Amino acid sequence: MSHEEETTTNTTTSSSSSDDRPPILAVDMDETIIQSDTEELIPGVEAALKKLHDDGWKIIIWTCRGDAEEFVPRVLGRYGIPYDAINSNLPGIKDKSRKIIFDAIVDNKNVDFGDGWEAVVEELEIRRKGWQSQGITKATIYSIDPRTGSEEIVQEWSLDSAGHAVLSEGDLESLELELDTCPEDGEEFLKAISRSVNNTYLFSSVARGEAFLFAPKKPAKTAFGDNLYSEIFEAISPTAKDPNVL
After folding, report:
1. Domains of the chain (ranges plus CATH)?
2. Alpha carbon distance 80, 77 (integer Å)
3. What pLDDT does residue 122 have?
4. Which among 246, 236, 241 has a CA at the least distance from the CA of 149?
5. Interior CA angle at 186 toward 183 and 189, to 5°?
6. How far apart, in whole angstroms, are the C-alpha atoms of residue 209 and residue 14?
7. Are 211 and 31 spatial neighbours (Cβ–Cβ below 8 Å)?
8. pLDDT per residue over 206-240, tens digit each?
9. Are 153 and 142 within 8 A, CB to CB?
10. What is the DSSP string of 3-44?
């Protein structure tokens, strides 16, 4: 998607409110525009961003994704969602700092500063207590294709009303877990999955509640022969058989 060129007589823009430019909106990508695990749109986002863009807002996609320059055009292009820049100021706006210039930001982790720092601290304390009280509620096991980096869920475990771990996605035959605890132990079972499964091509992540997912590091590019779980991975992904492929 081509970016519309902007012109300005200033070499540096330091104010978020300016009469000589359109309003600028910074928008996070994951869990704000799309659901990160499925790449499906968050309900209402398509109509909202199209309306804002039609109303004159310039949209900067502000994301931590390392593959943003490839990922954002591919996904937003699929849905026809307009934007004007990715992780950078609009063309024509020059500023020496690394912070982009915007008038408003939409982010699922944003804390509103409108009521001052006391309100910010109160909100963060509520969030911290919420994370702690929820504990670990989900453990997901993925396989990754070393050629493409694509991920596939092998098993997903969650807690039922009794606090026991239950398989909510996948099947037991796809991966046999050898853990020091059992599903009746609930949260400890989910934690044990996280501690034991991570390796080169098969890895896990745990979540505190539905909204807070802590993803693992991407696996290193090593030969299949160096992978402790190579046989398991090959069984899950039959095409990944070549030990010489990195």
Report:
1. 24-111 (3.40.50.1000), 133-236 (no CATH)
2. 5
3. 85
4. 246
5. 65
6. 39
7. yes
8. 776 544 443 433 443 333 334 333 443 444 444 44
9. yes
10. PPP---S-S----S--TTS--EEEE--BTTTB-TTT-PBPTT
- Is residue 159 within 8 Å of residue 137, measured between CB atoms? yes
Distance CA 111, CA 86 (A): 22
Say how far residue 219 (Cα) sits from the centre of its chain: 16
CA atoms of 215 and 207, how far apart (whole Å): 9
pLDDT per residue as tens digits for the range 101-136: 999 999 888 888 888 999 888 888 777 666 556 677
Euclidean distance between CA atoms 231 and 154, whole angstroms: 14
Half-sphere exposure of 92 (CA within 13 A, CB side): 12
User: What single string gives the DSSP state of each residue in 50-69?
Assistant: HHHHHTT-EEEE----TTHH
Q: Strand 58-61 vs strand 24-27: parallel, antiparallel, or unpaired?
A: parallel
